[in-house]
Amino acid sequence: MRKYEIMYIIRPTVLEDDRKALVEELNAIFESNESAVTNVDEWGMRELAYEIEDHKKGYYVVLEVQSTDEARREFERVIRLKEDVIRHIIIKDEL
């Protein structure tokens, strides 16, 4: 298993209950694939550096995970299908 840091940005128009459900759904991908989410840091609504799909703000979420390659690939597949997520990045932690 490897350590990863994942950041994704949720559309600002998503309601709070839907946003919480989305974060839980994405975290569950790791937990159901023999991996673990070690830290969830919700930065909240922030200004974007540039407009993305006509949005000037977004809701930032940062995850630290211990993940298998299969779980990471499944997470990436699912997050690309989610229309409420406007950007994401996965960084392998070398420590």
Q: What key attributes describe this structure?
A:
95 residues, Alpha-Beta Plaits
CATH architecture name: 2-Layer Sandwich
CATH fold topology:
Alpha-Beta Plaits
Q: CATH homologous superfamily - what is it?
A: Ribosomal protein S6/Translation elongation factor EF1B
Rg over CA atoms: 13 Å
Strand order across the biggest sheet? 2-3-1-4
- CATH class bucket: Alpha Beta
Quote the beta fraction.
over 45%
Structural class: alpha+beta
Note the main sheet: 4 strands, antiparallel
Flag low-confidence runs: none
**N- and C-termini, Cα separation:** 13 Å
Number of strands: 4
Count of folded domains = 1
Number of H/I helices:
2
Give helix % range. 25-40%
Q: Based on CA inertia axes, which overall geometry fits?
A: globular
The string of secondary-structure elements, in order, is EHEEHE
Average pLDDT works out at: 93
Describe the overall structure.
By secondary structure, the chain is α+β, with helices and mostly antiparallel strands. The chain has one domain (2-93): Ribosomal protein S6/Translation elongation factor EF1B (Alpha-Beta Plaits). Helices cover 31% and strands 51% of the residues. It contains two helices and four strands. The chain has a four-stranded antiparallel β-sheet. A hairpin with a 2-residue loop joins β2 and β3 (55-67). It is globular and about 35 Å long. The model has no long low-confidence stretch (mean pLDDT 93).
